[in-house]
Amino acid sequence: MPPPAPPTELMPSERAVVLLSCVLSALGSGLLVATHALWPDLRSRARRLLLFLSLADLLSAVSYFYGVLQDFSGPSWDCVLQGALSTFANTSSFFWTVAIALYLYLSIVRATRGHGGLLLWAFHVVSWGVPLTITVAAVILKKIGYDASDVSVGWCWIDLEAEDHVLWMLLTGKLWEMLAYVTLPVLYLLIRKHISRAHEALSEYRPILSEAHRLQHHSSMADKKLVLIPVIFICLRVWSTVRFVLTLCGSPAVQTPVLVVLHGIGNTFQGGANCIMFVLCTRAVRTRLLALCCCRCPPQAPAESPAGLPKAPAPSKPGDSGTPVDPR
User: Fold this and answer.
1) pLDDT (tens digit, 9 = 90+) per residue, 120-169?
2) Exposed, middle or buried: residue 209 (CB in 10 Å: 0-12, 13-18, 19+)?
3) Which of 298, 296, 276, 301 is nearest to 288 (CA)?
4) For 95-109, what is each residue's pLDDT tens digit?
5) CB count, 10 Å around CB of 40?
6) At what angle do helices 77-104 and 116-124 cross, to 10 degrees?
Protein backbone atom coordinates (compact mmCIF):
# COMPACT_ATOMS: atom_id res chain seq x y z
CA MET A 1 0.00 0.00 0.00
CA PRO A 2 1.33 3.50 -0.82
CA PRO A 3 2.74 5.54 2.11
CA PRO A 4 0.21 7.75 3.87
CA ALA A 5 -0.13 11.40 2.93
CA PRO A 6 1.50 13.96 5.28
CA PRO A 7 -0.67 15.43 8.05
CA THR A 8 -3.47 17.70 6.87
CA GLU A 9 -3.19 21.20 8.27
CA LEU A 10 -6.49 22.89 9.11
CA MET A 11 -6.87 26.56 8.27
CA PRO A 12 -8.70 28.82 10.80
CA SER A 13 -11.48 29.42 8.27
CA GLU A 14 -11.96 25.67 7.79
CA ARG A 15 -12.13 25.12 11.53
CA ALA A 16 -14.65 27.94 11.92
CA VAL A 17 -16.98 26.48 9.28
CA VAL A 18 -16.87 22.98 10.78
CA LEU A 19 -17.35 24.32 14.32
CA LEU A 20 -20.41 26.26 13.13
CA SER A 21 -21.75 23.06 11.55
CA CYS A 22 -21.28 21.26 14.89
CA VAL A 23 -23.17 23.99 16.75
CA LEU A 24 -26.07 23.99 14.27
CA SER A 25 -26.27 20.21 14.37
CA ALA A 26 -26.31 20.19 18.18
CA LEU A 27 -29.04 22.84 18.21
CA GLY A 28 -31.05 20.92 15.64
CA SER A 29 -30.76 17.66 17.55
CA GLY A 30 -31.65 19.46 20.77
CA LEU A 31 -34.75 20.94 19.13
CA LEU A 32 -35.87 17.49 18.01
CA VAL A 33 -35.44 16.19 21.56
CA ALA A 34 -37.28 19.23 22.95
CA THR A 35 -40.30 18.76 20.69
CA HIS A 36 -40.52 15.15 21.84
CA ALA A 37 -40.46 16.24 25.48
CA LEU A 38 -42.88 19.16 25.07
CA TRP A 39 -45.76 17.43 23.28
CA PRO A 40 -46.59 13.88 24.42
CA ASP A 41 -49.28 13.50 21.72
CA LEU A 42 -46.54 13.68 19.07
CA ARG A 43 -44.70 10.66 20.48
CA SER A 44 -45.46 8.19 17.72
CA ARG A 45 -43.21 5.15 17.34
CA ALA A 46 -41.55 6.68 14.27
CA ARG A 47 -40.81 9.86 16.20
CA ARG A 48 -39.41 7.83 19.10
CA LEU A 49 -36.91 6.31 16.68
CA LEU A 50 -36.11 9.82 15.48
CA LEU A 51 -35.51 10.80 19.12
CA PHE A 52 -32.84 8.13 19.55
CA LEU A 53 -31.22 9.16 16.27
CA SER A 54 -31.19 12.75 17.53
CA LEU A 55 -29.49 11.71 20.78
CA ALA A 56 -26.77 9.94 18.80
CA ASP A 57 -26.35 12.96 16.51
CA LEU A 58 -26.21 15.30 19.52
CA LEU A 59 -23.39 13.29 21.14
CA SER A 60 -21.65 13.11 17.78
CA ALA A 61 -21.83 16.89 17.25
CA VAL A 62 -20.51 17.62 20.77
CA SER A 63 -17.59 15.20 20.46
CA TYR A 64 -16.68 16.48 17.01
CA PHE A 65 -16.86 20.07 18.26
CA TYR A 66 -14.29 19.30 20.94
CA GLY A 67 -12.06 17.52 18.44
CA VAL A 68 -12.14 20.34 15.89
CA LEU A 69 -11.63 22.94 18.62
CA GLN A 70 -8.58 21.11 19.93
CA ASP A 71 -7.25 20.24 16.46
CA PHE A 72 -5.10 17.45 17.89
CA SER A 73 -1.50 17.37 16.76
CA GLY A 74 -0.57 14.11 18.42
CA PRO A 75 -1.80 11.26 20.65
CA SER A 76 -3.21 12.13 24.09
CA TRP A 77 -5.78 10.84 26.58
CA ASP A 78 -8.45 13.33 25.49
CA CYS A 79 -7.76 12.41 21.87
CA VAL A 80 -8.63 8.79 22.68
CA LEU A 81 -11.71 9.83 24.70
CA GLN A 82 -12.99 12.13 21.97
CA GLY A 83 -12.28 9.53 19.30
CA ALA A 84 -14.15 6.86 21.26
CA LEU A 85 -17.22 9.07 21.84
CA SER A 86 -17.42 10.21 18.22
CA THR A 87 -16.90 6.66 16.96
CA PHE A 88 -19.72 5.31 19.12
CA ALA A 89 -22.11 8.17 18.33
CA ASN A 90 -21.37 8.26 14.61
CA THR A 91 -21.75 4.50 14.16
CA SER A 92 -24.94 4.51 16.25
CA SER A 93 -26.31 7.27 14.03
CA PHE A 94 -25.83 5.02 10.99
CA PHE A 95 -27.74 2.21 12.66
CA TRP A 96 -30.63 4.40 13.81
CA THR A 97 -30.94 5.97 10.35
CA VAL A 98 -31.27 2.52 8.79
CA ALA A 99 -33.60 1.45 11.63
CA ILE A 100 -36.04 4.26 10.76
CA ALA A 101 -36.02 3.22 7.11
CA LEU A 102 -36.54 -0.44 8.06
CA TYR A 103 -39.38 0.45 10.43
CA LEU A 104 -41.16 2.46 7.73
CA TYR A 105 -40.69 -0.37 5.25
CA LEU A 106 -42.11 -2.97 7.62
CA SER A 107 -45.01 -0.72 8.68
CA ILE A 108 -46.03 0.58 5.27
CA VAL A 109 -45.08 -2.17 2.83
CA ARG A 110 -45.29 -5.28 5.00
CA ALA A 111 -47.97 -3.89 7.37
CA THR A 112 -46.12 -5.38 10.36
CA ARG A 113 -47.70 -3.83 13.45
CA GLY A 114 -48.22 -6.56 16.02
CA HIS A 115 -44.57 -6.82 17.08
CA GLY A 116 -43.72 -3.11 17.29
CA GLY A 117 -42.44 -3.31 20.87
CA LEU A 118 -40.20 -6.28 20.12
CA LEU A 119 -38.91 -4.55 17.00
CA LEU A 120 -38.07 -1.43 19.00
CA TRP A 121 -36.10 -3.46 21.52
CA ALA A 122 -34.22 -5.13 18.65
CA PHE A 123 -33.35 -1.69 17.28
CA HIS A 124 -32.01 -0.66 20.70
CA VAL A 125 -29.86 -3.77 21.04
CA VAL A 126 -28.35 -3.39 17.58
CA SER A 127 -28.12 0.41 17.30
CA TRP A 128 -26.55 0.93 20.75
CA GLY A 129 -25.02 -2.49 21.42
CA VAL A 130 -23.04 -3.05 18.22
CA PRO A 131 -21.39 0.43 18.18
CA LEU A 132 -20.61 0.17 21.90
CA THR A 133 -19.02 -3.26 21.50
CA ILE A 134 -16.90 -2.15 18.55
CA THR A 135 -15.82 1.07 20.30
CA VAL A 136 -14.87 -0.67 23.55
CA ALA A 137 -12.86 -3.26 21.61
CA ALA A 138 -11.09 -0.50 19.67
CA VAL A 139 -10.17 1.33 22.89
CA ILE A 140 -8.97 -1.80 24.69
CA LEU A 141 -6.83 -2.81 21.70
CA LYS A 142 -5.52 0.78 21.45
CA LYS A 143 -6.71 1.33 17.90
CA ILE A 144 -8.23 4.79 18.51
CA GLY A 145 -5.81 7.69 18.39
CA TYR A 146 -4.22 10.40 16.27
CA ASP A 147 -4.99 10.20 12.55
CA ALA A 148 -3.25 13.37 11.25
CA SER A 149 -6.64 14.68 10.05
CA ASP A 150 -6.29 12.63 6.87
CA VAL A 151 -9.47 10.70 7.62
CA SER A 152 -10.95 13.36 9.90
CA VAL A 153 -11.08 17.15 10.24
CA GLY A 154 -9.18 17.88 13.44
CA TRP A 155 -10.73 15.16 15.57
CA CYS A 156 -9.26 11.76 16.46
CA TRP A 157 -10.38 8.44 15.07
CA ILE A 158 -8.29 5.36 14.20
CA ASP A 159 -4.54 5.56 14.78
CA LEU A 160 -2.90 5.48 11.35
CA GLU A 161 0.19 3.87 12.90
CA ALA A 162 -1.77 0.70 13.70
CA GLU A 163 -0.91 -2.15 11.34
CA ASP A 164 -4.55 -3.12 10.83
CA HIS A 165 -5.90 0.45 10.79
CA VAL A 166 -7.85 -0.14 7.54
CA LEU A 167 -9.75 -3.01 9.12
CA TRP A 168 -10.63 -0.90 12.16
CA MET A 169 -11.66 2.05 10.00
CA LEU A 170 -14.13 -0.26 8.32
CA LEU A 171 -15.40 -1.74 11.59
CA THR A 172 -15.75 1.63 13.36
CA GLY A 173 -17.67 3.39 10.63
CA LYS A 174 -16.86 2.97 6.97
CA LEU A 175 -18.33 -0.51 6.55
CA TRP A 176 -21.67 0.55 8.06
CA GLU A 177 -21.59 3.83 6.17
CA MET A 178 -21.18 2.10 2.81
CA LEU A 179 -23.87 -0.46 3.66
CA ALA A 180 -26.21 2.45 4.46
CA TYR A 181 -25.47 3.93 1.02
CA VAL A 182 -27.06 0.83 -0.49
CA THR A 183 -29.71 -0.06 2.10
CA LEU A 184 -31.37 3.35 2.49
CA PRO A 185 -32.12 4.02 -1.20
CA VAL A 186 -33.42 0.49 -1.72
CA LEU A 187 -35.79 0.63 1.28
CA TYR A 188 -37.11 4.09 0.47
CA LEU A 189 -37.61 3.25 -3.21
CA LEU A 190 -39.64 0.19 -2.18
CA ILE A 191 -41.73 2.35 0.18
CA ARG A 192 -42.33 4.99 -2.47
CA LYS A 193 -43.26 2.35 -5.03
CA HIS A 194 -45.80 0.89 -2.60
CA ILE A 195 -47.30 4.31 -1.84
CA SER A 196 -47.58 5.11 -5.55
CA ARG A 197 -49.38 1.83 -6.27
CA ALA A 198 -51.77 2.35 -3.36
CA HIS A 199 -52.49 5.90 -4.50
CA GLU A 200 -53.24 4.73 -8.04
CA ALA A 201 -55.64 2.10 -6.73
CA LEU A 202 -57.33 4.65 -4.48
CA SER A 203 -57.68 7.18 -7.29
CA GLU A 204 -59.20 4.56 -9.57
CA TYR A 205 -62.06 3.83 -7.18
CA ARG A 206 -62.50 7.40 -5.95
CA PRO A 207 -62.72 9.47 -9.14
CA ILE A 208 -63.84 12.66 -7.36
CA LEU A 209 -61.57 15.38 -8.71
CA SER A 210 -61.15 17.42 -5.52
CA GLU A 211 -60.49 14.37 -3.36
CA ALA A 212 -58.05 12.92 -5.86
CA HIS A 213 -56.22 16.25 -6.09
CA ARG A 214 -55.93 16.48 -2.29
CA LEU A 215 -54.65 12.93 -1.94
CA GLN A 216 -52.18 13.42 -4.78
CA HIS A 217 -50.81 16.56 -3.10
CA HIS A 218 -50.35 14.81 0.26
CA SER A 219 -48.80 11.73 -1.34
CA SER A 220 -46.35 13.85 -3.33
CA MET A 221 -45.27 15.62 -0.12
CA ALA A 222 -44.64 12.27 1.57
CA ASP A 223 -42.77 11.00 -1.48
CA LYS A 224 -40.50 14.05 -1.48
CA LYS A 225 -39.48 13.42 2.12
CA LEU A 226 -38.87 9.75 1.41
CA VAL A 227 -36.57 10.68 -1.45
CA LEU A 228 -34.79 13.39 0.56
CA ILE A 229 -33.84 11.12 3.48
CA PRO A 230 -31.36 8.87 1.60
CA VAL A 231 -30.29 11.70 -0.73
CA ILE A 232 -29.34 14.00 2.17
CA PHE A 233 -27.62 11.18 4.03
CA ILE A 234 -25.48 10.28 1.01
CA CYS A 235 -24.71 13.90 0.13
CA LEU A 236 -23.49 14.55 3.67
CA ARG A 237 -21.51 11.35 4.18
CA VAL A 238 -19.96 10.71 0.78
CA TRP A 239 -17.12 13.21 1.33
CA SER A 240 -15.73 11.28 4.27
CA THR A 241 -15.77 8.15 2.12
CA VAL A 242 -13.91 9.99 -0.65
CA ARG A 243 -11.18 11.12 1.76
CA PHE A 244 -11.01 7.60 3.21
CA VAL A 245 -10.29 6.17 -0.26
CA LEU A 246 -7.79 8.94 -1.06
CA THR A 247 -5.97 8.23 2.23
CA LEU A 248 -5.69 4.55 1.38
CA CYS A 249 -4.27 5.51 -2.01
CA GLY A 250 -1.79 7.96 -0.47
CA SER A 251 -3.13 10.74 -2.67
CA PRO A 252 -2.26 14.37 -1.77
CA ALA A 253 -5.78 15.32 -2.90
CA VAL A 254 -6.92 14.29 0.58
CA GLN A 255 -5.71 17.71 1.77
CA THR A 256 -7.82 19.70 -0.73
CA PRO A 257 -9.43 22.51 1.34
CA VAL A 258 -12.86 22.19 -0.27
CA LEU A 259 -12.87 18.44 0.33
CA VAL A 260 -11.80 18.93 3.93
CA VAL A 261 -14.61 21.41 4.59
CA LEU A 262 -17.21 19.21 2.90
CA HIS A 263 -16.01 16.27 4.99
CA GLY A 264 -16.25 18.33 8.17
CA ILE A 265 -19.77 19.58 7.40
CA GLY A 266 -20.96 16.18 6.23
CA ASN A 267 -19.87 14.36 9.36
CA THR A 268 -21.21 16.96 11.77
CA PHE A 269 -24.43 18.32 10.23
CA GLN A 270 -26.66 15.21 10.31
CA GLY A 271 -28.59 16.50 13.31
CA GLY A 272 -29.20 19.83 11.62
CA ALA A 273 -30.44 18.16 8.44
CA ASN A 274 -32.86 15.98 10.42
CA CYS A 275 -34.15 19.06 12.23
CA ILE A 276 -34.81 20.85 8.95
CA MET A 277 -36.74 17.87 7.55
CA PHE A 278 -38.69 16.75 10.61
CA VAL A 279 -39.22 20.03 12.48
CA LEU A 280 -38.93 23.05 10.22
CA CYS A 281 -40.44 21.28 7.19
CA THR A 282 -43.12 19.39 9.13
CA ARG A 283 -46.27 21.47 9.45
CA ALA A 284 -47.62 19.83 12.60
CA VAL A 285 -44.41 20.50 14.54
CA ARG A 286 -43.62 23.83 12.92
CA THR A 287 -47.08 25.20 13.73
CA ARG A 288 -46.71 24.30 17.40
CA LEU A 289 -43.26 25.84 17.62
CA LEU A 290 -44.53 29.08 16.08
CA ALA A 291 -47.49 29.03 18.45
CA LEU A 292 -45.17 28.45 21.41
CA CYS A 293 -43.06 31.42 20.35
CA CYS A 294 -46.21 33.53 20.05
CA CYS A 295 -47.53 32.30 23.43
CA ARG A 296 -50.79 30.89 22.11
CA CYS A 297 -52.35 27.44 21.85
CA PRO A 298 -51.16 25.57 18.75
CA PRO A 299 -53.84 24.50 16.27
CA GLN A 300 -53.83 21.00 14.88
CA ALA A 301 -52.36 20.55 11.41
CA PRO A 302 -53.74 17.40 9.82
CA ALA A 303 -51.79 17.59 6.58
CA GLU A 304 -48.74 15.73 7.93
CA SER A 305 -48.01 13.14 10.54
CA PRO A 306 -46.30 14.38 13.73
CA ALA A 307 -43.11 12.67 12.76
CA GLY A 308 -43.09 14.21 9.31
CA LEU A 309 -43.02 10.70 7.88
CA PRO A 310 -45.71 8.81 5.96
CA LYS A 311 -47.93 6.65 8.14
CA ALA A 312 -48.77 3.02 7.61
CA PRO A 313 -51.65 2.38 5.17
CA ALA A 314 -55.12 2.78 6.65
CA PRO A 315 -57.53 -0.17 6.49
CA SER A 316 -59.70 -0.34 3.37
CA LYS A 317 -63.37 0.49 3.61
CA PRO A 318 -65.99 -2.00 2.40
CA GLY A 319 -66.24 -1.83 -1.37
CA ASP A 320 -62.84 -0.25 -1.86
CA SER A 321 -60.05 -1.96 -3.74
CA GLY A 322 -56.34 -1.58 -3.17
CA THR A 323 -54.59 -0.26 -0.09
CA PRO A 324 -55.33 3.37 0.62
CA VAL A 325 -52.44 5.33 2.06
CA ASP A 326 -52.61 7.99 4.70
CA PRO A 327 -49.82 10.28 3.50
CA ARG A 328 -49.82 12.42 6.57
Assistant:
1) 899 999 999 999 999 999 999 999 988 777 778 888 898 888 888 899 99
2) exposed
3) 298
4) 999 998 888 888 888
5) 7
6) 160
Cβ atoms of 266 and 239 within 8 Å: the answer is yes
Residues found in the chain = 328
Contact assessment for residue 267 and residue 25, using Cβ atoms and an 8 Å cutoff: no
CA 49/CA 96 separation, integer angstroms:
7
Question: Which residue from 181, 185, 157, 182 is spatially nearest to 241, judged by alpha carbons?
Answer: 181
**Is the Cβ–Cβ distance between 150 and 160 less than 8 Å?**
yes
Report the distance separating Cα 308 and Cα 9, nearest Å. Answer: 41
Cα–Cα distance measured from residue 33 to residue 30, given in angstroms and rounded to the nearest whole number: 5
Q: Who wins on pLDDT, 29 or 320?
A: 29
The type of residue at 161 is E
DSSP, collapsed to helix, strand or coil, labels residue 140 as helix
In DSSP terms, 144 is beta-bridged to: 158
